[in-house]
């Protein structure tokens, strides 16, 4: 977001005669990379590496992993401690996923694109986790092979997905899986498109209003508010990442801003509630500090806004630290996946990165050799240290998580 501006400022502030050759070469390379990135056609964001042409028979003719492997996978998911997919996509539970798998594997005619997206997206992530935990090479290679099959199916279906979809739960679930995957493969604009469509469907169905989210026929698990809050979090987070206005307006929401044990198992309600709060402040950082209107504020107004957002961000960080300690204690007792530990550590990095962006809006002190305030520099350094620690964990434990971790 700020790379080209930073490079330009660095070059302008320094005489080329005073720059060591290696630094000059590095700055030139960075400027070239940013320039090339800006020239890339936006069409590339709508193409995938493994996508294929649809066979004559449509989606039912695409190969799937063996049914016995999928049955074993779902049984493992149901009997094991929660993994990263169970939390990141908590709107899908194993029974719902099993029913959708039955539609695909026992298809007599055809099935909806949305069904195929949910099934292949879910299986892709679940096989990825199984490959990560596999201790023997043959088992790991088998899981990776199934994972690749599901990835190809998912990408092939996503490029054909019509964005005029029926307003129902399955459409929103499919769009959420699509958006999460688009972020994972560094396609933020495509993720924004899927998320915006999901947000529109949620608003059409009234999921943002408290009177519409709970019906008399609802089962023990309240899926509608959970779906809405997942869409909300993506909408707000991508707003800051892509520099676009949020689709969902906070003043239009009457739904309580929390996720409880009627939606997900404890203690994940507290974690997701924390994510909701963080995504809200991320959007406000864009709206109040970096949007076109915010950039026209006076310096005094911007400093006042920075201090207000700083206070709110630090309050979220303090509460999140307490929640994280409780959750990690519970995960250890369950012998849950170490991926979750890394994921929660990544939350701390997100907080520090957001705080860095808040401080970036502060003016540098008079006479400072840099355009950044000391608070911004110190927070950025701390965030970088957290990042390096997380990358070391990934390097030690498995290559599958690296891309997902970086893009989120």
UniProtKB/TrEMBL annotation:
Keyword annotations of the record: Nucleus
InterPro entries per UniProt: AtrR-like (IPR050987), XnlR_reg_dom (IPR007219)
Domain Xylanolytic transcriptional activator regulatory: 191-262
GO molecular function: DNA binding; DNA-binding transcription factor activity; zinc ion binding
Xref: CDD domains: fungal_TF_MHR
GO term, biological process aspect, one: DNA-templated transcription
PANTHER family for the chain: TRANSCRIPTION FACTOR PDR1, ZN(II)2CYS6 TRANSCRIPTION FACTOR (EUROFUNG)
Name of the protein in its database record: Putative transcriptional regulatory protein
Organism of provenance: Colletotrichum sidae
Source taxonomy: Eukaryota, Fungi, Dikarya, Ascomycota, Pezizomycotina
